[in-house]
Structure formats: structure tokens, C-alpha cells
Design goal:
Radius of gyration: 16 Å
Largest sheet: 7 strands, antiparallel
Strand content: 15-25%
Bound molecules: fe (ii) ion
């Protein structure tokens, strides 16, 4: 069943209360996230290896404090946008968009990768994101008119990534973009599924790829 799509929209959050960008910068051990290309560089990334840089390895061993702040952001900022309990992506997906490179191997709709209807994508940059270093999204399903969404640190870009074509282009700025993205589903629309994610091979189910916001602290 196809549900009413969310409108692509920006939501602000308080960086002092939810210091996710600082925690990621500390975890990566760099003074400035948008300059991490000076510490390691890669040939053009592809769908197969776009989650396999040294930066991803470091991010995915981040400590509990990051997850405590992530959970607080979900409860305080994200859940009120939906007005009901949410099922959410337990571990956000990390992206690095190095200059002259891509962050995600191909333009796609998340449903192409087994994601289910009802999921809403939330995208949080930890560096200022604009033009060729940000995410590009079509304005309506099937329109094909992908355009860049400028976004600041402290903002969340919400969009229907299951159905809208999205991705990125080669970063022609001289700054790296670092971001995370995750998906939420209204609890009333959640159906556990056995399909698995393309990278981590986790089932799209609570206890696998997802967690229940009301049942976690
Ligand atoms: Fe996607």
C-alpha cells in the first residue's frame, strides 16, 4: 500500500542540546569535518564501496553518548512532527562526500533497495551542504528534476526517499560533506518485513534495522 508522501522540508534543531556534529568530529579525531579529505583520499566511490572508507570504520564504532543524543533528538524533535510513536533506524547511515568524489554510488529510490512504503528519510549534515556537495532530490515522484537542497548544520532535511529519486553528483566544491541519514516509520504504519538491507543485511524489522522509540531509552 502506498501512503501519503511527506513534503520535502527542513526542520531546525538546537546544536547545543543535540551536539551530534561535535561528537562525530571527536570520533573522527579531526579539527574540522569539512577538511577530512586532507587526511585520506579515495578514487571515485561506487555502490559497492561507498560505505567502506576509513571514516566509515571510525564512525561505526562511535560510543553510547552519540546514541543517547540521537535518541533524545528523535524523542524531542522528530516524534512531535508525526504525533505518534515511531519506529526508527537504530544505527544512522554515515556518509562522506569528498571533493571530486561521490558519497553514494548511484542515483536511486530507496524502494529499489527493498525499503518499504511508510518510511520517511531524515538527512542531517554535520558540515554546511550546498550545490554539488549536498543531496539532490526530485521535486515529485517521476519528475526527474533532481536539484540540490542546501542545508546547514543544525537542520534536518526530511523527504520521501522511498519514492523520490535522489542521490548526489561529483563534489566540485573544495569542502567535504559529512552527514548521517536515517528513516522513521509511524508506528501505526509499521509492518515487520523479512527483506534485508543491501549493506548490513539486517532485516527491516524491530530488533534488526529498526527500533521502537517508545520501547527504548
Ligand atoms: Fe537513498
Amino acid at each position: 500500500m502506498k501512503l501519503d508522501p511527506v513534503e520535502t522540508a527542513l526542520v531546525d534543531y538546537d546544536l547545543e542540546r543535540y551536539p551530534l556534529a561535535d561528537l562525530v568530529r571527536e570520533q573522527l579525531g579531526v579539527p574540522q569535518l569539512d577538511e577530512i579529505h586532507t587526511t585520506a583520499d579515495y578514487p571515485l566511490l561506487t555502490r559497492e564501496n561507498d560505505q567502506k572508507t576509513v571514516f566509515h570504520e571510525r564512525f561505526y564504532s562511535i560510543g553510547d553518548e552519540f546514541f543517547r543524543v540521537y535518541h533524545r533528538l528523535l524523542v524531542d524533535v522528530v516524534q512531535p512532527l508525526f504525533g505518534e510513536n515511531l519506529i526508527y533506524q537504530r544505527i544512522p547511515t554515515f556518509r562522506v562526500h569528498l571533493p571530486n568524489n561521490v558519497a553514494v554510488g548511484e542515483i536511486h529510490r530507496d524502494r529499489d533497495y527493498s525499503h518499504g512504503q511508510g518510511e520517511v528519510n531524515l538527512w542531517l549534515p554535520f558540515t554546511r551542504a550546498w550545490d554539488s556537495n549536498t543531496v539532490w532530490i526530485e521535486s515529485a515522484e517521476g519528475s526527474g528534476d533532481l536539484r540540490p537542497y542546501a542545508c546547514d548544520v543544525g537542520q534536518i532535511l526530511m523527504f520521501d526517499g522511498v519514492n523520490l529519486l535522489h542521490g548526489n553528483v561529483r563534489n566540485e566544491t573544495d569542502k567535504t560533506r559529512v552527514s548521517v541519514d536515517f528513516r522513521v516509520i509511524r508506528a501505526s504504519q509499521y509492518v515487520a518485513r523479512h527483506a534485508t538491507t543491501i549493506n548490513s543485511k539486517l532485516e527491516f524489522a524491530v530488533g534488526g534495522y529498526f527500533a521502537d522509540l517508545a520501547a527504548t531509552t
